[in-house]
Fold:
Amino acid sequence: MLRLLQHPNGPKLTAEQRTKRFRSYVELADWAEKNLPHGLYFVRNSAATTLAGLRVVRHFKGKFHVEGRGYI
Structure:
C-alpha cells in the first residue's frame, strides 16, 4: 500500500490526504488529478522497511512523475 507524505518544498496535505491509501501508482495518479494540488510530494510504500520505500513524486500540469518509476 502506498501513502502520501508532505515534501518540505510542496503544498500542505490535509488530514484526509495523509490518511488515504493507494494500491498502485496508477491509482494514486488518477486520484491526484482530481484531488491534489500541483507540487512535490513523497510517497511511502508501507511494505518497505527502509528508506528505499520513499520516493519523490512530481505532480505538475497533468503530468505525474514518480522517482525511479517514470511518468505514470
